[in-house]
Amino acid sequence: MKLAFAEVTGWGKCVPPAIMTNHDLATFMETSDEWIRTRTGIEERRVSAVGTSAMATVAARNALAAADLDPAEIDLIIVGTCTPDEIIPNVASKVQQDLGAKNAAAFDLNAACSSFFYAMHFATSSIRIGMHKKVLIIGAERLTRILDWTKRESAVLFGDGAGAMVLEATDKEVGLLSSKVSCDADARDVLSLDFGMSFDRYQFDGVMPFNFEGQEIFKRAVKGMSAAVEGVFKETGLAVDDIDVLIPHQANKRLIDFLAKMCKVPEEKTMINIQKYGNTSSATLPIAYCEALETGMVKPGDSIISAVFGGGLTCGAGLIVWGDRVTPLQNNQMELEQGADQSALDLILPLFEGSKKAWEARGK
Ligand code: ACO
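Above: inputs. Below: predicted complex with acetyl coenzyme *A.
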C-alpha cells in the first residue's frame, strides 16, 4: 500500500464581533488589566452571540474557499469542541448540513484544548492509509457560556471563536509528518466542569462548578508538551535550528515563551495572538495558523512545530511541513453575520448575575 501525505490546502477562521477588554471585565469583577496582562498576556477576548456550530460553519466556509473546494468533495468532517450546541446531534452534522457537504461522515471529538490537534493527528492518519481523501477539521468553542463569571481566576482567561483546515491527500511530503498525542489522566480533575450525565438535572440550581487549578495545570502542561516536542524531535531527527516557525496553543503567554525557548525560536517566528482572543480552547491552533499565514509568517516549505495541552490532561505536538501555497485560492475572510449589534457586556452580564444569584442561593 502506498502511503499518501495530508497537505493543508485550506484554512479559515471565525472570530465573533463582540470584544470584551480586560477593562470591561474590571467593571464587574475584582480584577485589573495589569493583573491579566502580566500573568497571561491577554488584553481582550471575543464573545459570541451564536452557538458553536454557527462559528464552525463560517470557519469551514473560509477554509473551503481557501482550498477552492466544493463542499460535496469533503469525505470527513471532524469538529473538535467541548462546547457543543447540543449533546445529540453533534456539531459536525450541523456543519455538514449548513455546508451541503452531503458526502461527508461527521463526528465531534473532545480532548478539550487539544481537540483540534487530535483531529489533525487522526485525520492525517486516515488520509495516509487511504481511508479518506479530503477532510475538513475544525476547532470551535463558545466557552463564554460555560464559564462561571463570578470566578475571576478562570473567567478572565477564555474567549469564543473557531478555526478550520482542509487536508487533502497528496504525494508531496508535506503536512503533519510526525505527531505525538498523550493523556495524563492522573490530572483529570485539575481542569474540570461538572455538567453532564452525572448531574442531577432535577436538582440543578444553576451553579456549574468549574474546577481550575492554574498552577498545577501550568506544571503538567510544561511537562506534557516538552515530552511531546522531544518525541517529535527524536522521531524526525529534527534539530532546533531546523524549525522555521512555532505555532502553539494560546493558553498563556508565559507557556508560549517557555516553548519558544525550548525550541530556540525567536519571538518574530513564534505565532502569538493570545492578546486578542484569550484562550479559545480547540480554536486557538487553527486561528493561529490562519493569522500566521495572513501575516506572512509562514513561507512555502516551512517546518512548523505546534504543541498543545488541554483538560484531561491531554497533550500533543507535531511537525507540519507547509506546502507551496501560502495564499488562499478564493477569499477566505467571510465573517459571522449575527451578533454585531450586541456588546460583549450585554452578552455576559446576565450570565454573571445568574451565577452570582445561584451561588448566593447556595449560601456562598
Ligand atoms: N485578577 C486579579 N487577581 C487574581 C485573578 C484575577 N483575574 N485571579 C487570581 N487572582 C489572585 C489570586 O486570588 C491570588 O491572590 P492571593 O495571592 O491574594 O491569594 C493571586 O492573584 C495569585 O493567584 P495564582 O492563581 O497563584 O496566580 P498565578 O500566578 O498562578 O496565575 C494563572 C494564574 C494565570 C491561571 C496561572 O496559574 C497559569 O498560567 N496557569 C496555566 C494554566 C492556564 O493558563 N490555563 C489556561 C487554560 S487551561 C488550558 O488551556 C487547557
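Residues 214-236 form the longest helix (23 residues).
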